Amino acid sequence: ETVMTQSPTSMSTSIGERVTLNCKASQSVGINVDWYQQTPGQSPKLLIYGASNRHTGVPDRFTGSGFGRDFTLTISNVEAEDLAVYYCLQYGSIPYTFGAGTKLELK
Amino acid sequence: QIQLVQSGPELKKPGESVKISCKASGYTFTDYAMHWVKQAPGKGLKWMGWINTYTGKPTYADDFKGRFVFSLEASASTANLQISNLKNEDTATYFCARGVRGTDYWGQGVMVTVSS
Fold first, then answer.
1. Chain A contact for B103 (CB, 8 A cutoff)
2. Does B94 touch chain A (CB under 8 A)?
3. Pairing between β-strand A62-67 and β-strand A85-90 as defined by DSSP bridges
4. How does pLDDT run across A66-88, given as a tens digit for each residue?
5. Is B44 on the interface with A (CB under 8 A)?
6. A64 to chain B, minimum CA–CA distance in Å?
7. What does the pLDDT profile of chain A (107 residues) look like in tens digits?
8. Closest Cα of chain A to B65: distance in Å?
9. Is A55 exposed, middle or buried (0-12, 13-18, 19+ CB in 10 A)?
């Protein structure tokens, strides 16, 4: 199975900063990667699909990039509502696999 | 608008069974797959598998073969997850998620607690 390794496990930021979250696949998955945001007690919400496409209604401060094995999610101008856990998902091969998540916290 | 509404929380004893539902609305049910995802308390997301809502064919991740069954009530735009012979480690929130490429819209989740 394809292992998705997210880094860092957690990161502290200030409002207004720019942060970059990483996801590395154990084998190539092409562009078959989504990014999700989960706040406590809520279901995950799709942010980015196909590595770089924003889902409907997602603010343009969220940007995804990558191909093959290395993927990034960049959040520009972090807002308080962005403090959450972020997961990547690969769907290039069965079984689909999630990364372990990156927790974005306030500094 | 697109919605996936799941059934309510469940409290079960080890060895019992549970069936949770996921009712879709706002789109043509059979046009999209339905995925199931497990989240144990305080843990990350684990993909369980998916069901083709057109053919009814399920696909299970290895860890979910045997006691887990995906089914459909297509006329009611509903997908179901049944877990038999419940174990303590099945305690988790179970999400359904509409499948397109990966997934897009998710249900609110069902908390299943297994405790004697």
1. yes
2. no
3. unpaired
4. 999 999 999 999 999 999 999 99
5. yes
6. 15
7. 999 999 999 999 999 999 999 999 999 999 999 999 999 999 999 999 999 999 999 999 999 999 999 999 999 999 999 999 999 999 999 999 999 999 999 98
8. 12
9. middle
